[in-house]
Design a protein that fits this description.
The chain has about 160 residues and is α/β, with parallel strands linked by helices. The protein has a single domain, classed as Pyruvate-ferredoxin Oxidoreductase, domain 3. It is built from four helices and six strands. Strands 2-3-1-4-5-6 form a six-stranded mixed sheet, with helices on one face. A hairpin with a 7-residue loop joins strand 2 and strand 3. Helix 1 packs parallel to helix 3, helix 2 packs across helix 3 and helix 3 crosses helix 4. The two termini are about 20 Å apart. This is Pyruvate/ketoisovalerate oxidoreductase catalytic domain-containing protein. One of its GO terms (molecular function) is oxidoreductase activity, acting on the aldehyde or oxo group of donors. InterPro entries: 2-oxoglutarate_synth_KorC (IPR052554), Pyrv/ketoisovalerate_OxRed_cat (IPR019752), Pyrv_flavodox_OxRed_cen (IPR002869). Keywords: Oxidoreductase. It holds the Pfam family POR.
């Protein structure tokens, strides 16, 4: 993987975007890389929009704001201009995914295969780890995930092998 890499993840409150951004940044730091993560979210606990900007680099990061993401991930409908991104992933639940987006069933897999709507973000994390070419065996998830570790690891595995 060529670094730096910039992500923007946009979803609804309750989709676990804040935790997802934090875990991605912590994994990068644990691997000796530099990482920044910034959040923008509505005051609503559930249903409001949440956006996480994550930058991972082998060098010092001068600007943590992601205006032109390498990877834009959308888990709910929003107005971000997807044409600014190199790659766009959308969850299957997005009503109008951007043209050219790769659509994945992150939250459907969580609900139907794992019987939990709370781990859709971890399914997504698995897909991101695959994209970053980070082997699951190289990450000690217990350092970053404190609740329901076994279920979260199953969710990560599902996402890692998602086509």
């Amino acid at each position: 993987m060529n670094y730096p890499i910039k992500f923007k993840i946009i979803g609804a409150g309750g989709h676990g975007i804040k935790l997802l951004g934090t875990v991605i940044a912590k994994i990068a730091v644990s691997r000796g890389q530099n990482a920044t993560q910034s959040l923008d979210y509505d005051s609503a606990v559930r249903g409001g929009n949440t956006a996480a900007d994550i930058v991972i680099s082998d060098h010092e990061i001068s600007n943590p704001v992601v205006e032109h993401p390498d990877l834009l991930i959308i888990t709910s409908d929003n107005s971000f201009d997807a044409s600014l991104a190199k790659y766009v992933w959308a969850d299957e639940g997005v009503q109008k995914p951007p043209k050219g987006a790769d659509v994945f069933p992150f939250f459907i897999v969580a609900r139907e295969k794992l019987q939990s709507t709370r781990v859709g973000n971890m399914v997504l994390l698995g897909k991101i780890l695959n994209f970053l070419e980070i082997e699951q065996k190289d990450v000690d998830f217990s350092l970053f995930i404190k609740k329901s570790l076994d279920l979260n690891i199953k969710a990560i595995e599902e996402g890692y092998h998602m086509n």
